Amino acid sequence: MEALLTTVFLGSLLFGAVTAGVPLLLAGLGEQISEKAGVLNIGLEGMMLFGAYFGFAVAYQSESVALGFLAGGAGGVAAAAVMALLCVRLGMNQIVVGIAITLGAEGLTALLHYFRFARSYPRLGRIESLPVPLLSELPIVGRALFDRTLLVYLAVLLPFLLILVFRRSQFGLNLQAAGDKPAALDAAGVSVLGTRVAAVLLTGFLAGLGGAYLSIVGGGLFLPFMTGGAGFIAIVLAMLARGKPLWVLFGAFLFGASLALTTAMQVAGVNVPTDVIQMLPFAMVILVLVLFARHAYLPPALAQPYHRGER
Hints:
The protein contains 12 helices and 2 strands, in the order ααααβαβααααααα. By secondary structure, it is an all-alpha fold.
């Protein structure tokens, strides 16, 4: 009996860690791109909320998960465009604008949901997965890792793709220069503002995808304020990863496991107060910051507006 409970607990924990970790992974990688270019994207939570609402609304209306994910990404880009205009183009304070985007997204998405669905919370139908032959039949890890939607597999591959982009591509080098020495990038004939705008929009797309996954796959419905601080956790992940995408991957699923602990314990029949378990992710954030914050990587030009001709 104990062996069965242990198997059920581990399987549920692993499954929940992946489900909760994918939004953190996508948003964290997006934030890493933005920070490399010198933009501190505090509005990440708001971009995830836009992605969650528009992704769910389109998926519900069209009965197409693919269209829902695209709409979620587009919602994140729309919020990111505001960040790019106000902070990158106009040089406004990135922290203030980011907080305003998050607060605005919380109110606007709640209002849009009320106008569209009133006080009802409709759910999507079952989302089709893409099982990997043979591997999906493995005990414990099979269903959790190898019987997921296509976006999960793409999200796990994304850090490896970003490693190549950061190290081997001209765009990756431009991102690094925009955050470290923007004046040198400008002197080389590359637009600092254009590079930062592209980074912010790409961040918005990934954050929107993460939010859409949260509402379409994670919950199957949209709830106001449903991100619950996931965007801020993703910012912490990006800062502590020191520019390394694989560390974002590891951290996302670590925090995802802490978020999934409540469900896993309930499935295994462990009686632990829900409030205690729900506190764990944020307690873990505080612990990680205390232990590793001094080793966080922050580009020299992070959160500093760039005006051409400055040295």
